[in-house]
Specification:
Layout (H helix, E strand, L loop, with lengths): L1 H21 L6 E10 L3 E3 L2 E10 L2 E3 L2 E10 L7 E10 L7 E10 L2 E2 L3 E4 L2 E4 L4 E2 L3 E10 L7 E10 L2 E2 L3 E11 L4 E2 L3 E4 L5 E2 L8 E4 L14 H21 L3 H11 L1 H23 L5 H16 L1 H16 L9 H14 L5 H26 L17
Parallel strand pairs: 1-3, 2-4, 3-5, 5-6, 6-7, 7-9, 7-10, 8-11, 9-12, 10-12, 12-13, 13-15, 14-16, 15-17, 15-18, 17-19
Amino acid sequence: MQSNNKRCLLLLTAILLILLIAAPSSAVQIKSGDMVSVPGGAAKGPLFVSGNSLIVNADVDGDVFAAGQTVVINGNVDGDVIAVANSVRVNGNVRGDIRVVASSIEVGGQINGSITGAGSNISLKEGAIVKKDVLLFGDNVELLAPVEGQAMGSAKQMHIDAPINGEVHIWDVQNLLIGPSTVLGSQLSYRSDKPAQIAPEAKIGKVIHLAPKSRPKNINGGFSWFTAILWLSAGVLLWGVAYLLFPPWLPRMGSLAANEPWAALGWGFLMLLLTPFAIFILMITVVGIPVALLLLLFYIIVLSASKLIVGDFLARCLSHYLKWDGKMPFIIPFLIAFVTLILVSKVKILGFIVSLGTASFALGMIVLYFYRWRTQPPENISESESDPIIVQ
């Protein structure tokens, strides 16, 4: 058991090494908590923030990584902005790119790079400007800011009312509205079952309306119960094997994550982004190839088992909330949580957000566990950490 812990710690150490390779340790700023506010002035990046409510008023010299419920960036960023949250609002200017997954996304500053966003409601406000391309996937998308590159994406409803120098490609849209301020330097192509509503004042060179793709009929009648039961059985089997081989791991990881959920999500999101870079850098060195392969294996295993890990955590929360502790076999709440995660992950857009959050949270649970292991060996941790999770 001790040797297994040390091997996993070596993998985690390899991940942390990339932080030192990617940026000098003296320049990295990490802030986490329920309410995090970075005051105005200058801040040296990269800046990593996680918590419930995040506000960055400072001008950041470097990249900004954010994970939380609400993220607001009012200062200028001399780098990229990468965020996962329920709501993200970027009011300042960004010299690099923006990569965001959130339910609500608003951009109001000048973006010298490109924007990639996925969410429910996405709005590039009037007064903003994008120097390169935009790639947006959402339910309701507003493109009211000038774009000097291409505009691409998919949405239920998309509203374009701004100059766009490059081509506009909309792969799937139900309602497309083209406002009077629209000036397209190239062609507009979109796929929809009904024509776009184009204002007479709009200036468009060429419009290509593509019919929706016909969906092939499923000869098996759609949903396959056999496949679903097979995957569910495999997941439960792996979950049971994990408990047999490492009985204290999941309860202790869940207990630590329950105390610091936003820290787990933030650190997990960071590891989700940086681990592939760590693997790449280690692979280009001869001595680092064995470590890179081990790190890649660890990364794949954690991502594959992320729904099992988070499902176990949610099951403990559910069991405690419903007062099932000691009264109901634990496999019942686990099946409820696990099946719910699988079903929600199949929903368009929302499923991607849930899957991303699940993977980040699972990685964060492991990071918190091994951080505690480093400071306090598992055999000395109080048995209370294996007790049912207390939901505040």
